[in-house]
Amino acid sequence: MPTLGNPAGTLEILKKYNFNFQKRFGQNFLIDRNILNKIISSAGITRDDFVLEIGPGIGTMTQYLAESAREVVSVEIDRALIPILADTLSPYNNVTIINEDILKVDIAALARERNNSRPIKVVANLPYYITTPIIMGLFESHVPLKSITIMVQKEVAQRMQVGPGTKDYGALSLAVQYYAKPEIVATVSPECFIPKPNVGSAVIRLTCHDKPPVTVPDERFLFDVIRASFQQRRKTLTNSLSHASLPGITREAVEQALLEMELSPSIRGEALSLEEFAALSSILYTNRK
User: Fold this and answer.
1) Facing residues of 123 across strands?
2) Is residue 246 over pLDDT 90?
3) Distances from the Cα of 146 to the Cα of 45, 49, 114, 132, angstroms
4) pLDDT exceeds 80 at position 26
5) Of the candidates 277, 288, 171, the residue with the CA atom closest to the CA atom of residue 232
6) DSSP H stretches of helix in 44-144
7) pLDDT tens, 89-123?
8) Does residue 152 have a pLDDT over 70?
9) Cβ 149 vs Cβ 203: under 8 Å
10) N or C: which end of the chain has fewer CB within 10 A?
């Protein structure tokens, strides 16, 4: 039975090991059992699942995962937490701790060796400063993924699930929705952490698509177009893309592509859906000079 997930248990462990929070790692430890249970249930963890956890901290959520999953591999970058994890996770024989930067871990190899290359589930209370690189690293490496259920800054969660025409809509929204269906399953108060973060948080579940909802001739080129379209939000798509140094893409090519799509040459990137970006990138890719 988990011993962490409440203020008293967490403070006892921190005091026992005289642990000092490292601001550079963005450490905020969960102390609310209701939220922990919500994460586990939202992720749909069962005894059939291999789970990759990113940033276990002192092992709070790891304990809950270990109770529900077949096997858990937790990747922790802070070496000072390794002896604490050895202590708090000692009752569990289905947990492996890797002391490494998640961006350097061969997750595909883990899935191959521990789960017969079947899709894995990722669960994490992510450091806010590195949320986007971690999520995009998981998606772009084409690791076999079933779902990603993560605690992130509330504003970032909102950006992941919004559609065209909203102020939060951008490259992250499109990238996430290309790979997965996003759904915010809980909002979380700063009071649920030690130490308290300065912003609100949210748990978002990204249910990965079996295949992307749109088809394009070149996925990398699609994302180059999307990123260029949002680098300066006040610019029109015509201006953004014609000044983005995309190989073979001229102003005339962008104008012609928009004309083919029956879109105004003064339209901005925030007005286009994922399907429209796919169509635009396909036309531009095919007509490159």
Assistant:
1) 53, 149
2) no
3) 11, 10, 15, 18
4) no
5) 171
6) 60-68, 82-88, 107-115, 131-140
7) 999 999 999 999 999 999 999 999 999 999 999 99
8) yes
9) yes
10) N
Q: CA–CA distance from 131 to each of 45, 157, 268, 282, 289 (Å)? A: 22, 10, 26, 29, 37
Record the tokens describing residue 115, joined without a space: 């789960």
Task: Identify whether the C-beta of residue 92 lies closer than 8 Å to the C-beta of residue 63.
Answer: yes
- Mean of pLDDT values over 14-18: 90
Question: Among 53-67, 126-140, 256-270, whose mean pLDDT is lowest?
Answer: 126-140
Backbone Cα Rg of the chain: 21
- Structure confidence at residue 252 (pLDDT): 92
**Whole-number mean pLDDT of the chain?**
93
Joined together, the tokens standing for residue 245 give: 């140094």
H helical segments located in the chain:
7-16, 33-43, 60-68, 82-88, 107-115, 131-140, 154-161, 171-179, 219-230, 237-242, 251-260, 274-286
195 preceded by cis ω (within 30°)? Answer: yes
In angstroms, rounded to a whole number, what is the distance separating the alpha carbons of residues 222 and 228? 10
- Hey, what long-range contacts does 224-228 have (CB within 8 A, 24 or more apart)? 225/277, 225/280, 225/281, 225/284, 226/171, 226/174, 226/175, 226/269, 226/277, 226/281, 227/171
Nearest to 238 by CA among 249, 222, 224: 249
What is each CA distance from 66 to 14, 27, 141, 172, 280, in whole angstroms?
A: 21, 21, 26, 31, 45
